[in-house]
Amino acid sequence: MVEMLDAGQRRDIIVITIIGASGHVGGKVAQELVESGHRVRVLGRDAGALDHLVEHGADVRIGDIADTTWLTAALEGSDAVFAIVPSNPFTGQYSDDQDRLGESVCAALKNSEVRSVALSSLGADRPDAPGVIGALHLSTWRSRLRATSSCRTRT
């Protein structure tokens, strides 16, 4: 909860959504937030992996973050998002999976009214990073390319 500074004003309750709440880092973030009294929404594919957070008052939404429509709906009403893309480096399509999930998260965030986003990713400093970070780099690169090409004039 965020308390307003002026006496007599109401408390603003914000919703913090955690993508990747069943994982090691996302799970710790979600647990800390719910135990601190924050209103937390956790997203995941397996309800059983999130049961312990329900016991502390978390709002659980079950779905696949690759489904941009579902993810956009799951983010509705969120004020902040902590996003970690699930990672399985042992699949034969690791890079493609990370790109697909990262692009879905980026698209859902763009379609939402989320005011604050925290991303956690390996290689966040690299334009070829997997997941959300790589998708953001690619999205920025595409936007710059479109802007540059639309500004060209014929002489």
Summarize the structure.
By secondary structure, the chain is α/β, with parallel strands linked by helices. The chain has 5 helices and 5 strands, in the order E-H-E-H-E-H-E-H-E-H.
Query: Approximately how much helix is present in the residues?
Result: 40-55%
Shape: globular
Order of helices and strands: EHEHEHEHEH
How would a textbook summarize the main sheet?
A: 5 strands, parallel
Q: Give the spatial strand order of the biggest sheet.
A: 3-2-1-4-5
Secondary-structure class = alpha/beta
Global Rg: 18 Å
On the 0 to 100 scale, the average pLDDT is 77
Q: What is the total tally of β strands?
A: 5
Measure the end-to-end span.
58 Å
Poorly predicted spans? 1-11, 144-155
Percent strand:
5-15%
Number of helices: 5
Looking at this protein, list some descriptive labels:
single chain; 155 residues; alpha/beta; 5 helices; 5 strands; 15% strand; globular; disordered N terminus; disordered C terminus
Provide a descriptive summary of the structure in words:
This protein has 155 residues and is α/β, with parallel strands linked by helices. The protein is built from 5 helices and 5 strands; from the N terminus they run E-H-E-H-E-H-E-H-E-H. Strands 3-2-1-4-5 form a 5-stranded parallel beta sheet. Helix 3 packs across helix 4 (94-111).
Explain the layout of strands and helices.
Blueprint: E1 15-19, H1 24-35, E2 39-44, H2 51-54, E3 59-62, H3 68-75, E4 80-83, H4 94-111, E5 116-119, H5 131-151
Parallel strand pairs: 1-2, 1-4, 2-3, 4-5
